[in-house]
Amino acid sequence: MVIKSGEPWLLWPNMVSYGINTGDIGKTFEGDTDFTLSMYIKILTKSAEKRTIFAKLPNYMGLDIEKENNNLMLILNLNKNGETEWKYLFSETEIGYDFNLITFRFNKTNKILEILVNDIIAIEYKLENDEELSIGYEPHIIFGSGNFPSNGFNLNYCEYDIDFLMISKSIKSIFEIYNIKDNLILDDTIVGLYDFKKHTDYKIYDLSENCNFLHKII
Fold it and tell me: The pTM is what?
């Protein structure tokens, strides 16, 4: 399925699933547990300008691509001794314009964040002892933009083809991720699983049965 430029999708099940969603998927990325977000995508927007693959709001954390061959940049919003701190982490790894498995994962025990392109670590950051991932009210994720179109700023639209997205409250190896992708194997740590085959024009169904639907932003 193609996420079109200017038509981002939203993961905010607390707002659209009428209370039947489970797993606190929005809070998965705030450091209380290990986590893995993995997606199989092909970038379609060809530009040297910054484009956002996904962004967590309201306490911003986003994965962007830039330059002609799609180098990655991870933007982190951190809490350091009660103050907000920003980290901009760049990678020389180029993902080009083919399909790639992009994985974002966090090891809570070791306080290490990683971005992997297929089986290569493109970005790695170890939180300092006084650093924590920031926490926001009603966290949600936008895919294909850095903000809501109605807000009119920091949009950084990105068009891409996607046929797999998995969100887990555990560290997943690349082998495990491919096994989940190819066989749609579930375990109780997976809070969102999408193959983008079961969908309507405005909703992507969650195969994990947690009812954490993805919705097109109207």
Answer: 0.95
Q: Average pLDDT of each block of 10 consecutive residues along the chain (218 residues)?
A: 96 87 92 96 92 95 93 95 92 94 97 97 95 92 96 95 97 96 93 92 92 91
Give 1-66 as a DSSP string: -EE-TT--EEE-HHHHSTT---S-GGGGGSSSS-EEEEEEEEE----SS-EEEEEEETTTEEEEEE
The token duo for 86 is 């920003």
Query: Could you list the residue range(s) of the whole structural domain that residue 150 is in?
Result: 2-216
In angstroms, the CA 80 to CA 84 distance is: 6
Residue 24 CA to residue 45 CA, distance in Å, equals: 32
CA–CA separation, 87 vs 33, rounded Å? 21
Residue with tokens 């995508």: 41
- The count of domains in the chain is 1
Q: Where residue 188 sits, what CATH number does that domain have?
A: 2.60.120.200
